[in-house]
Amino acid sequence: MSAPDRLTSYLHSLEPENTPLLAELRRYAGEHDVPIIRRETESFLKTVMRMLRPGKILEIGTAIGYSSIVMAQNSNAVITTIENYEKRIPVAEENIRRAGLEDRISLRRGDAGEVLPALSGAGQSYDLIFLDAAKGQYLIWLPCILSLMHEGSVLIADNVLQEQTVTESRFTVPRRVRTTHERMREFLYRIKHHPALESAVLSIGDGISMSVMLPGGRDNHTAVCRCQGQLNK
Fold first, then answer.
1. Among 98, 210, 213, 85, which Cα is nearest to 146's?
2. What is the CA radius of gyration of the chain?
């Protein structure tokens, strides 16, 4: 076992046992190859919920509802979560029901590229946005996401290091993932240099970025929220 693997195993060993439902969902995700947040990312999210105490959360990427449930159980927030994969939506809805959180977690069916502009057009804003969906779309969705933030809002994006491949030249990664690789590198550059944001990139799990909208940040965000029609470019 390599040193990083030993460190991860040690950190996992420190975690207290999860609730029976979350433990069951983590087993289900492993058996059915469903991508959910890693255990160290889960621990980070729990701590952030207690620190920030957000009132409204937007999650982009529901999967089976695991991270929505984690955030709801560690805050008093009302959560809107977006999912496009039809086969997982009934599973997520049933898990949310089993957790007794139907009154606080609302699942929006559809592509984020269509739902985000609708939320922005309706004047919605969120205290925290958790981005954990198609990695090649983070950059495309960023203008819409910023339009849904207010001063002090926090954006957390998961899996931004892509198994450390973001450090590699585009020519060393497989051709099929080069677009995603390039977009993720550009996403990280944008959030680190955007005048509306203060951002950190952390090597937790497969990498997390955490950005807060600065005072006057809305004035420094001028991009129009237009995600539709751009998803396959």
1. 213
2. 17
Residue 43's contacts (CB-CB under 8 Å, 6 or more residues apart) are 15
Separation CA 126–CA 210 (nearest Å): 15
Decide: pTM greater than 0.85.
yes
Assign 117 to helix, strand or coil. helix
* Ramachandran assignment for 13, one of left (phi > 0), alpha (psi -120 to 50 degrees), beta (any other): alpha
Write out pLDDT tens, residues 124-176.
999 999 999 999 999 999 999 999 999 999 999 999 987 676 666 665 666 66
Give 61-75 pLDDT, tens digit per residue.
999 999 999 999 999
Ordered structural domains, the chain, with CATH: 3-220 (3.40.50.150)
CA atoms within 13 A on the CB side of 63: 20
